[in-house]
Amino acid sequence: MGPVHVGTGQLFLVAGPCVIESEAHVHKIADAIQRITSDLGVPYIFKASYDKANRTSVSSFRGPGLIEGTAILRRLAEATGLPVLTDVHEPSQCEVAAEGADVLQIPAFLCRQTDLLVAAGKTGRAINVKKGQFVAPTDMQHAVEKVATTGNTRVFLTERGASFGYHNLVVDMRSLAIMRRLAPVVFDGTHSVQMPSAANGVSGGQPEFIPLLARAAVAAGIDGLFLEVHDNPAEAKSDGANALDLKNLRPLLETLLAIHAAAQTV
User: Fold this and answer.
1) For residue 58, how many other CB atoms are within 10 A of its CB?
2) DSSP state letters, 193-224
3) Cα separation of the two ends of the chain
4) What is the pLDDT of residues 112-157, one digit of tens each?
5) pLDDT (tens digit, 9 = 90+) per residue, 50-79?
6) CB-count burial class (<10 Å; 0-12, 13-18, 19+) for 195
């Protein structure tokens, strides 16, 4: 994906706001993260969604939509040179989204949707499949195989926690090693601390645990890290409760790079 090579032993980052709030905002966040990752030598993929189709409440902000959102992402990629990742929710969205994104992401709730996986694979873009909260890590083999039927083997998998009763997720670190037998693996450090639908129609979160889980995942041997990052999480239009504050990104990455280097020697 441009300068980012997955599965080569170098830790890479997927990061950005949950949803496109405005064109100016995504450029602000992308530029800030790009400066940090460039300083630290971390390969970086920008992420943002043009539509959050699975918001808890029907009144929640969803984003600018497929056409406008894809155009915003295309312009950002051209201006920054960054690879871009975005979600797709329906097979009909894949070809349009592929015009603006280098990576198409299959949301966790949709990781078993055959038509969506096949349509995404047919675009030839790299595909990131998020493991559903209800899916065993070994069963992600089927998602990889569905994409592979299109001849597209550019697939990686993302762990984002498993359902644990109501309003809570838990991360089984064994899943990282299990899924890594199937494809390169990314750890989602922000959705893993989400508390789904726990805040009166929106999701809550425990962002204070992002560094803890990210440190454990890097030590366990992941290929990449996924973080939703915002410059003002309290005012974010989606998933602010579990987002990483932009000001905390550099120190977190510095710690994770040290852990990654140490883990490589074991």
Assistant:
1) 7
2) GEETT-SSSS-EE-GGGHHHHHHHHHHHT-SE
3) 29
4) 999 999 999 999 999 999 999 999 999 999 999 999 999 999 999 9
5) 998 776 667 677 889 999 999 999 999 999
6) middle
